Each structure stands twice: as C-alpha cells, then as structure tokens.
Predict the 3D structure of the following.
Amino acid sequence: MKVNTLLPIKHLKLLIGYGIATDYTCDISPDNVNYTTLLYGTASETTQQTADTDLVNGLSTFYIRFNKTTTSNYFTLSILSIEADIDTSKIPSGLLYPLSTNQFTETVKMPSVVTRIYYRQAKFENEYGVVVPALEFTDASAVNIGYVPLKLDNSQETNPCVDILTGTTNWQQSGTGSNDSTTGVILNDGEYLTLSTAVAEIKVDYKVGGGTTSFANITKNAYYLSSNGSDSDGVQFPSSQQNVILGIRQQGALQRQADIGEEVELVRQGISDTQQLVRNSSLILGYDAGTTDDYAITLPNFTGYKPGLMVLFKANTVNTGACTLNINNMGAIAIVKGITTALSNADILALMWCLVVYDGVSFVLFNPRAL
C-alpha cells in the first residue's frame, strides 16, 4: 500500500495486529522498488507487533507490503496503526488538531474599550495573507476597534463555531450568541455577545456543529493517513484508493501565491520607475502647438516636471520676449537663457528646434538665437 502524509516524516512507528495461518514479513520502501523488512511474523504469533524506523525520514510518501511464505494459507490483517512524527516547521500557520478528544482552549487578551465580541469566520487575514477565523472587537454601535486571528482554524469543519467561556461575574451574555448551557456563549459566524463591563482577557473553545444545542468538541486526531491498495509488484487498484486528509490548510501554496503577487507588483513598480526615469532624464521630443510666447507640447506617459527633464521641441512661432513652455497642460513654466535671464525678442524662431532643461524653477534654453 502507498501512504502519503503530505508533509515530511521525522520518525515512523507501525503497530500490526493479525490473524494468520502462515509466516509473513512486513516490508517498507521509499520508492516501491527497494524494500526493507521491518517485522517477521509466524503462524504461532498471538500478540500485536510494533516497529520503529527512520528509513523514510524526510519523505512524505512511502510504501508498505506484506509477504506470506506459504501461498496456500491465508493472511488476515486486523490492525495496521501508522504513527508518524510529521515535520510541520515549513507551515506558516497550521491546522493541527489535538490528539484524542482533547479540546483546544485559547486565551485572548482584550482591549479595555471593547463592548461587543463578534466571531468572524472569513473576514480577516493572518500575517501570511491567509483568511482565518478571528474575534472582532467593537463598541456598542458595532464600530470596529480591532480583531485577533484565532490560532486554530476549524473552518474546514461542518458549521464551525466558538465557545466564549465566561467563568466570571462581571459580564453576561446578550446579543445574538446562544448560551452553551454550562459556562459559555456559543458564537456562529457573524454572531456576537455583549460585555456588561470591561474584562482583561477571555478564553475560547473551538467547537463544531454550530446552532444552539448541536455543537460539539473537535475530536479529530492530529493527522489522518489513508493508503492506496497495491499488490507486491506495485500495481495500484483504483477501487481501493482513498483520499488523504492531513488536517491542515494548504497555506504553503497560498503563501507562495501571495509571494508571486508581490513579485509581480514589484516588477510593475520597476517598470513604472524605469519609465519615469526615461521621461525625466532622457531627451524627449515634442512639437509646439501653442500660441505666440505660450509654447505647448504633448508628451505620452508624462507625469510631471522634475529637475533634469530634457526636452527637444519644435516651435511653431517666433517669441516676442518672455515666454513659457507648457507640457500636457500641467502648468506654464518660464523659458530662460543662461541661468535666469528672460528671453529676448526672436531668441526662438518659427520652426526652430529648441533644446531646454528643467532646473526645478524654469526651462533653460540651450540654443537661444542670441545670448
């Protein structure tokens, strides 16, 4: 059989129970080609057997097979328990349920101005950009004060909800939540309770089922392994194939998607910066379409005047004295010669090519007809 844990394995332990009438071996392989025997069993075995191994350390997929030594006798496998120590260090924020039937309880610190507590199933994101359940804090008019993402994501469950544990006398239930008949208030998505007075912290239990009476504790294990049935030569039987659930959201893929989005945005910003550099630092060609002494040109993708901007434009009229240049109707800028000297009559001739540079105050004409 093929076992897939989705995440790398640190250590593996097998427990086997059987009813057999022949000798057998239990073998393990990382590739379904090279097998190593972990356990030997005989027809006289009456107890369960266990084996610990590091042969699949670092892998997320491995194979187990059973071989019987006598083809005429039967081999019955009654128990196969696979316990794997999973490496979850690469998961930014995992959905890891407690072992057996233990229930997570989380303590959440409270802002002193909170009047209402809402349970939000999919309104907020954590620091990795993943939508996670959260508690939203508001005042009595439902004005947002802040929120805290919850550590456990039970959104994959049927009708997930939370139980806000009271256990104190200085606040009481009101709002849209429902009493859990013992020590807390059940909140489904969008429901809230109202505090009678400020509290420093609250405790949260994670539930499933929702509603007012049908909720229950989460009772799943930390991970679930299922396998694809296969014979000794590695041919899989589709009829025996099952899905594997690890009990975590695929946040690694979501995080990578967010990273790609950020990288694309950086590329776009780089292109924009490059275009701005070209516009502001390179020779840009334009043709005058203004009136006498009010030269005007249009440039594509122009965003504004910046020192160092160099423009070559063709004037359509002669100037009669002081004059200006207006690009894309962003404001008329005086044209001077030398440093700050206003132009004289006929410094610019009709059909003359004019080379100017913006110094932060004026356009300085490099080629006036007369200095």
Observations:
- Residues 282-365 form one domain.
